[in-house]
């Protein structure tokens, strides 16, 4: 038998044993961060996180289009002074605002979705739901 295969066979059971021990967490030691509420579900201890937090212990931010800085967030830091590091083309506290206006003149983007003005509908606010002055042509305003 090859030495590497033998080493892997010994390592895998040890690794699986570590996973089993790691999942058996004492309930008194779990502390949900950021006002998360600790609950038990199917004999598993979980944290219910308030918005905008997420993660196993509510330690991360629910960034829409970017990466959470988590515990590294410090308002006075030179690099981690924002809760989220936004992907290109996105901005906002949770990277929820597009730098490109995807909603046209009839709406604003919020958390990746268009919030349409009155009488406009559609995923990009491109349809008129009520025609006041002018004609309605194939559901689009003219």
UniProtKB/TrEMBL annotation:
The signal peptide here is 1-27
Instruction: Spell out the disulfide connections.
Output: 49-58
EGF-like domain sequence ranges? 24-59
The record's section on InterPro entries has: EGF
Q: Membrane-spanning regions, if any?
A: none
Q: Which UniProt keywords apply?
A: Disulfide bond, EGF-like domain, Signal
Question: What superkingdom heads the lineage?
Answer: Eukaryota
Q: What is this protein called?
A: EGF-like domain-containing protein
């Amino acid at each position: 038998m090859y030495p590497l295969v033998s080493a892997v066979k010994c390592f895998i059971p040890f690794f699986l044993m570590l996973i089993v021990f790691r999942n058996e967490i004492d309930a008194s030691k779990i502390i949900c961060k950021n006002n998360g509420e600790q609950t038990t579900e199917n004999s598993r201890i979980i944290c219910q996180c308030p918005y905008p937090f997420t993660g196993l212990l509510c330690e991360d931010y629910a960034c829409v289009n970017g990466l959470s800085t988590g515990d590294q967030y410090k308002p006075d830091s030179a690099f981690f002074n924002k809760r989220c590091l936004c992907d290109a083309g996105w901005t906002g506290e949770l990277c929820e605002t597009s730098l490109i206006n995807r909603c046209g003149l009839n709406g604003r983007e919020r958390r990746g979705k268009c919030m349409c003005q009155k009488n406009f509908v559609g995923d990009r606010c491109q349809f008129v739901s009520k025609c006041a002055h002018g004609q309605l042509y194939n559901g689009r305003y003219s």
